[in-house]
Every structure is written in C-alpha cells, then in structure tokens.
C-alpha cells in the first residue's frame, strides 16, 4: 500500500508539472486513423526486420514500458487489440523521447504517429515520430498476476477486469452479437420490434414478485415490469399487428443465484395465427441460428453436461416426468400428498402455498436430471394462467419450456384468447395473491376488456440473457458487465 501511495504522489506531481508548463493532461480529442487490429491485418505480410515508409496514426492506453537505453518498447492497447510502439534515439525526435520519459506512465492514454516496421523477432511495431499525452492517470493499474482476485472486487471494478483480462472483453462482444443475432433472425422472419411500458399499474405476463415505485407527477404507485410487455404485445395483436417482438430490461424482486438476477435483459415475441407447435419449430431454428452466429458452434459443455443443439430436440411430458421421477401424479394428487413428497425429498418450501406453487417445487427438483435440449410439454393449467387449454386434455395447456442442462431457458405457449376463461384464471390468481403468494398474477381488467374485442389465435415466446450465460457456461452475474452490488459502506457496516 505504501508503494502505491508513492506512485500516486509521483503521478500527481507530474500532473501538476504538466499544468504548470501549460500542457493539457486531459485532451479534448485526437484524430485516430488506425486501430491496432487494422494495422496488424494491413501489414501482415511485412517481413521480419523490414522497415516500411507506411505511416500510422493511432491512440490507446499504455499497458507496458520497457526501457533498454537507446530504445524504449511500449505496449499500446485499444479496443481492437495491442500493438508495439518503439521510441529510438536515432529515429524519434529527442523532445518526444524526453517527454515520454518524464511524464508517461503505464495506464496513460497517448496518441502517436510513426512508421510501420517489423522487428527482427517478428513483432509488428510503430516507430514513433510524434507523440502526445491524451489522458494522465493517477491510480496505477493492477498487476496482471496479482490484481483483482475476488469476484466482488472484479464486479465493482469491472472496467479494470475488462482491461486486464481480454477474455472478459471478448465475452461482452459475444453478448452483443448474441442479442443482435436474435434481432436479425426475427426481423428476417417478418417480426416488428416494438416498445412497451416499463412502468405498469398492474404487472402481467409472469409469476413473479415485482419492484414497486411511486410516480410523483401522477401521484400513483406503480410496478416495474416483470415481463417483456406480454399483455401489451397481445394488445398490439388486437390492434392489428401480426408479428411483434421486444428486447429490453425487466425486473423481478426475487433472490440472487448463479442463474437469476433482479434486473436483466429479456426478449419476447408474439405471432398471430400460429400455435405452440409452430412456435417450437421456429424457436429450435432460432436457437441454432444464434448459437452458430455467436459462438460458431452447436456443441457445448454446460454444467458438466455435453449439449448438442444441432440434433433434433425431443419432447418430454411435464406431468409424466414428475410422475416418473417422484411417483406423484400431479393431476390427481392432493396438496397433502405433494407436501409429503417435498418433505421426503428434503426440498425447502412454504407449506402455506397452494397446490399450484407446490407443483412447481416438484418440477424444479425433477428438471435438474434432464440434459436436453428438449421441449417440456403437457404442463398443467393450474400453473399456466395465460396459456390456451390443451385441445387433447383440458387439465393441461399448450405450453412448452426449453430445457438445457437441467434449467429452463425459454418459455412459450399458444396464447389464451378466450376473455371469459382468462378472467376466470385471473380471479384464481388474485385469490392466491390474497392468500400471500406474492408471485401470483394480478387481475388485469383492462386486458380482459381488450380481449373481449377479439385477439386472433396466437403464440408467444420469451427468453432471457440466462441463455447466453448457459452457453458461456458461466454464472449469470459473470456475464453482466456491471452487476448490481451493495454500496461499499453498507458492506462494511454489515461486517461490523
């Protein structure tokens, strides 16, 4: 720590000296013409030891300095990658060498111009002819092998994590490709991207505990959305649209785990005149497309399981799978029987919950044993308030989950468009809320009214950024650029 304090004092002294000499340490701009990657590609055929007349003008952060007397080697990093700079007594003007030695430290941003060459050891380099300081740093960068160790520290200083670990930066580039590939796929299939409200008087479209807030101007209490505008998108179908999707942030006031966050990115689409069978075909095609586009492959290892997205996805019955693994027929079993089974499996649960929610606990126990990729079908109506009744069995709905490596990574169904049936299910959900189930859905009378004007047959599907985390085989917080953390002062109080 003492050494770091000394470094900071030295840098502040340099900063003061720069200002005293009327040298701006924080420039407004720099005309950068070349990136490191572009230069590496453009001059890949330059031979070892060859000096060229080609010039380069680039900028970036100084990551390493090696001064061996007559020559100074500098590692410069920009968004695209690294390139070596050389300051040489016989070639670089003395004033630039003197300036560099006096003021430049590892971490500073500089802009340079120079000639391209390749060293005898094969390193493409820029022989500096002119140099200027763009940003003077005060805090030293962490050492490469002794830097950020704990996840908490890495997440809090993610900017350093990305800077010091290029693979982290690459992960977020992949994440951008992931979402753009979804957009590309859906737009090609004729879907229109729309936007729906983030603040809602009543939440809808999912079973989840919402965040609440207050709107000062209207003096009303509101909720942050828990779905990607499901009920709004279906209102758009009522209004004449036939294929819509939305991609954005949604919020659920629930626990943190390796698979769950409270605010995260979600995509949902709605498709008129199609059912869940059409949906499954489209989604299987879409997942293969985004995996190939983002990762360049269809075979993955996730949680120790080998997953091949390229093969034909099988269909597994939700009710039959629970019966197969637990001997419980959820369509006939009483609440007491389910409670007894949950206790025997040593699953933690609240015995005050109704049968619908207890069935979900059983399912979450069973799904861990399925590798997938698979579609889980034959889901009970009791746990699916927005899905259309299964045309072969009225106790079930036309709904599916995508199951990969024991977790649900997507959810779709034939949308319920019978307003009276929907109203009846909302009322049952409201009863569950009044009995203390915070995740039960709210009775949305305005949505029911809209349905009474008629919604065409339709199917919908939703997926979150958990899909990306699974394909990366990483905890979901690791794949979030800036995950939510407790303020450090609160953390310190808690420790005391």
Main beta sheet strand tally, sense and closure: 8 strands, mixed
Q: Shape, please?
A: elongated
- Just name the CATH architecture of the largest domain: 2-Layer Sandwich
CATH topology-level name of the largest domain:
BirA Bifunctional Protein, domain 2
What class, by secondary structure content? alpha+beta
Describe the structure.
The protein is α+β, with helices and mostly antiparallel strands. The chain is built from 15 helices and 20 strands. It folds into 2 domains: 134 residues, Nucleic acid-binding proteins (OB fold (Dihydrolipoamide Acetyltransferase, E2P)); 332 residues, BirA Bifunctional Protein, domain 2. The strands form 5 sheets. It has an 8-stranded mixed sheet with strand order 6-10-11-20-19-18-15-14, sandwiched between helices. A hairpin with a 2-residue loop joins strand 12 and strand 13. The relative contact order is 0.09.
Quick description:
The chain is of the alpha+beta class and 496 residues long. The chain contains 15 helices and 20 strands.
What descriptive keywords fit this protein?
single chain; 496 residues; alpha+beta; OB fold (Dihydrolipoamide Acetyltransferase, E2P); BirA Bifunctional Protein, domain 2; eight-stranded mixed β-sheet; five-stranded mixed beta barrel; 35% helix; elongated
């Amino acid at each position: 720590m003492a050494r770091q304090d000394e470094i900071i004092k030295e840098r502040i002294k340099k900063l003061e000296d720069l200002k005293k000499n009327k040298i701006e340490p924080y420039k407004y701009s720099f005309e950068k013409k070349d990136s490191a990657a572009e230069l590496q590609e453009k001059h890949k055929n330059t031979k070892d030891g060859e000096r060229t007349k080609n010039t380069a003008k680039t900028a970036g952060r100084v990551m390493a300095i090696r001064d061996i007397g007559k020559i100074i080697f500098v590692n410069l990093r920009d968004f695209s990658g690294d390139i070596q700079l050389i300051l040489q007594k016989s070639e670089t003007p003395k004033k630039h060498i003197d300036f560099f030695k006096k003021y430049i430290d590892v971490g500073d941003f500089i802009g340079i111009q120079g000639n391209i060459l390749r060293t005898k050891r094969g390193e493409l380099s820029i022989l500096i002819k002119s140099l200027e300081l763009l940003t003077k740093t005060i805090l030293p960068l962490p050492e490469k092998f002794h830097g950020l160790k704990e996840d908490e520290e890495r997440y809090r200083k993610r900017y350093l994590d990305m800077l010091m670990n290029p693979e982290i930066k690459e992960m977020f580039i992949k994440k951008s490709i992931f979402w753009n590939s979804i957009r590309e796929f859906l737009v090609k299939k004729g879907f229109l991207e729309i936007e729906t409200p983030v603040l809602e008087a009543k939440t809808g479209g999912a079973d989840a505990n919402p965040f609440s807030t207050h709107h000062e101007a209207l003096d009303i209490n509101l909720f942050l959305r828990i779905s990607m505008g499901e009920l709004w998108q279906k209102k758009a179908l009522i209004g004449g649209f036939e294929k819509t999707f939305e991609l954005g942030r949604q919020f659920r006031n629930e626990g943190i785990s390796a698979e769950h966050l409270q605010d995260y990115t979600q995509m949902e689409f709605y498709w008129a005149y199609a059912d869940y069978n059409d949906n499954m075909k489209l989604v299987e095609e879409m997942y293969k497309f985004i995996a190939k586009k983002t990762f360049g492959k269809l075979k993955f290892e996730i949680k120790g399981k080998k997953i091949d997205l390229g093969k034909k996805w099988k269909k597994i019955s939700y009710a039959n799978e629970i019966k197969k693994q637990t001997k419980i027929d959820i369509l006939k079993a009483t609440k007491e029987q389910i409670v007894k089974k949950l206790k025997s499996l040593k699953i933690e649960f609240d015995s005050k919950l109704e049968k619908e929610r207890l069935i979900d606990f059983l399912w979450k126990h069973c799904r861990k044993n399925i590798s997938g990729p698979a579609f889980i079908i034959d889901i009970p109506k009791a746990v699916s308030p927005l899905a259309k009744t299964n045309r072969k069995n009225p106790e079930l709905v036309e709904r599916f989950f995508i199951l990969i490596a024991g977790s649900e990574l997507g959810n779709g169904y034939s949308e319920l468009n019978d307003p009276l049936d929907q109203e009846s299910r909302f009322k049952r959900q409201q009863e569950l809320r009044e009995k203390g189930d915070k995740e039960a859905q709210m009775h949305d009378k305005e949505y029911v009214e809209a349905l009474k004007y008629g919604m065409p047959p339709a199917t919908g599907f939703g997926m979150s950024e958990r899909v990306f985390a699974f394909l990366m085989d990483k905890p979901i917080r690791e794949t979030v650029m800036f995950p939510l953390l407790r303020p450090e002062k609160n953390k310190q109080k808690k420790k005391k």
